[in-house]
Amino acid sequence: MRERGISPHLKSLNDIRSMKRPIAMVISPGLVQDLLWADPNTEKPKPPNWEPNPYRNCSVMFGPEAVRQMCKTLGVHMIMRAHQAAQYGYSTFANNQLITVFSAVRYNPETNNWGAVAKISPDLEVSFALFKPKEFKEPQAKQ
């Protein structure tokens, strides 16, 4: 399963399948907003399942137990997500049941992050192709 985040409003994969598309703008709290903006809570040693997301001023942050329960509810082994920078191109959460993949190398020049692409084998083994940033020089001003 792949998306940005998970949601306490998500009860089955049919909830995603039945969404009206295209989705032009999301301003209301709920399932669509969470799928676009929810983040794993990596800051607390034992985060709650769900709590408001103070970094985005919308959606939720979720803990490892929420990921475990969501995988069980949806009948999936893991959740793969994107749209959140990861220093080395990818990161894992909740005993590898949630994987974040970020392909944009040097998304923010100050962080000098790597990019990654997930490779999934027929037997669902996940590996990564990693892309290190090249040396970066600021363009010279034209005189």
UniProtKB/TrEMBL annotation:
Cited Gene3D superfamilies: 3.60.21.10
Entry-linked SMART domains: PP2Ac
InterPro entries for the chain: Calcineurin-like_PHP, Metallo-depent_PP-like, PP1_catalytic_subunit, Ser/Thr-sp_prot-phosphatase
Cofactor requirements of the protein: Mn(2+)
Keywords: Hydrolase, Manganese, Metal-binding, Protein phosphatase
Domain Serine/threonine specific protein phosphatases residues, every copy: 1-135
Reactions the enzyme catalyzes: O-phospho-L-threonyl-[protein] + H2O = L-threonyl-[protein] + phosphate; O-phospho-L-seryl-[protein] + H2O = L-seryl-[protein] + phosphate
GO molecular function: metal ion binding; protein serine/threonine phosphatase activity
GO terms under cellular component: cytoplasm; nucleus
Entry superkingdom: Eukaryota
EC code: 3.1.3.16
Class of enzymatic activity (EC top level): hydrolase
Name this polypeptide is given: protein-serine/threonine phosphatase
Organism: Meloidogyne floridensis
